[in-house]
Design goal:
Elements (H helix, E strand, L loop, with lengths): L2 E6 L5 E6 L17 E7 L5 E7 L7 H4 L2 E5 L1 E7 L14 E3 L2 E6 L5 H10 L11 H15 L4 H15 L1 E2 L3 E5 L4 E5 L7 E5 L11 E4 L4 E4 L7 E5 L10 E2 L4 E5 L5 E4 L8 E2 L7 H6 L3
Parallel strand pairs: 9-19
Antiparallel strand pairs: 1-6, 1-15, 2-5, 2-14, 3-4, 3-6, 7-8, 8-10, 10-11, 11-17, 12-15, 12-16, 13-14, 17-18
Helix pairs in contact: 2-3, 3-4
Length: about 290
């Protein structure tokens, strides 16, 4: 299963160190257990998106993902990919960038020909450089955001409603980031997505650096030892009891001031909800925990 990690540090850029493959599987095991891509998205001091990513396969060098990367940004978006659709190439590796926004997705949706026709009718098919369902999903959000006059939240809602109504869906979990805001969606309940609001000043113990670790993505930041921040992740990344799962259909927005808004804009599950049995073997393997 793909791993997502989002970090919103507020209005002031902070430094964080990332490892995207902290404990890689042995190369002696079958290639399906190896990641198919890894990437980190950040913003520079001018608010311009920057993405560092690399397609990975079992026979390739994993140095990109194993090496620590020291980055500075107000928001960070990291992703480790297990491919369900699209070749192991740079253009299919997350995060994706469109209109200076960053996007990473964990899940599968079918009906890509129909989705392509929708993107063409909205004039954004040219945004899609690869073959993945994820990049197409992002392009639809981009198109709907443009139609909503730049309102990202409205663009997300309209795009997800169309997909849930028109296409077969396994999971649409994603994190979308700008230099100042972050959105996260869990929909439907197929895969978990967790959230943590961390305020060291309110903690009972002395402030400690951020030290978030999972099987695939790790992040550490001494800058965040004393300042509040918000985290999203596929799985809890430390023992903090305030990690909690988003509900199915919950869309969370974190503003530049770290104000958190949660809405439930989707009624019920997608019309054509897929199960693992509906997926091709390679796609099904990519979606197992």
């Amino acid at each position: 299963m793909c791993r997502l990690f989002g970090l919103h540090a507020g209005a002031r850029p902070v430094r964080a160190t990332f490892w995207l493959l902290d404990a890689p599987d042995s190369l002696s095991v079958q290639s399906r257990r190896e990641p198919d891509g890894a990437g980190i998205g950040t913003y520079d001091t001018e608010g311009v998106a920057r993405v560092a990513k690399q397609p990975l396969a079992a026979w390739e060098d994993h140095a990109f993902a194993r090496e620590a990367r020291d980055l500075q940004s107000t928001t960070f978006l990291a992703h480790v990919r297990y491919a369900s659709t699209g070749a192991l190439t740079m253009v299919n590796t997350h995060p994706f960038e469109q209109d200076n926004r960053l996007f990473a997705h964990n899940g599968v949706l079918h009906g890509l020909d129909e989705l392509d026709r929708r993107l063409t009718s909205l004039g954004v098919r040219g945004l899609v450089q690869g073959q993945s369902d994820s990049e197409r999903f992002f392009a639809l959000i981009t198109a709907e955001t443009r139609r909503a006059g730049g309102d990202v939240g409205e663009g997300i809602v309209q795009a997800v409603r169309w997909i849930a109504r028109e296409l077969p869906v396994f999971s649409l979990n994603f994190i979308l980031s700008t230099a100042t805001d972050m959105w996260a969606l869990r929909y439907p309940a197929t895969h978990p997505l967790y959230m943590l609001e961390r305020d060291p000043a309110r903690a009972p113990d002395p402030p400690a650096p951020l030290d978030a670790r999972s099987k695939r993505i790790s992040s550490r930041s001494t800058d965040l030892a004393r300042s509040p921040h918000v985290l999203f992740a596929t799985e809890p990344m430390d023992h903090n009891p305030r990690w909690h799962p988003l509900s199915s259909g919950e869309l969370v927005h974190v503003g530049a001031d770290l104000a958190v808004t949660s809405t439930m804009p989707f009624d019920g599950d997608p019309v054509r909800l897929l199960t693992l049995a509906d997926l091709e073997p390679s796609a099904a393997a990519s979606q197992t925990p």
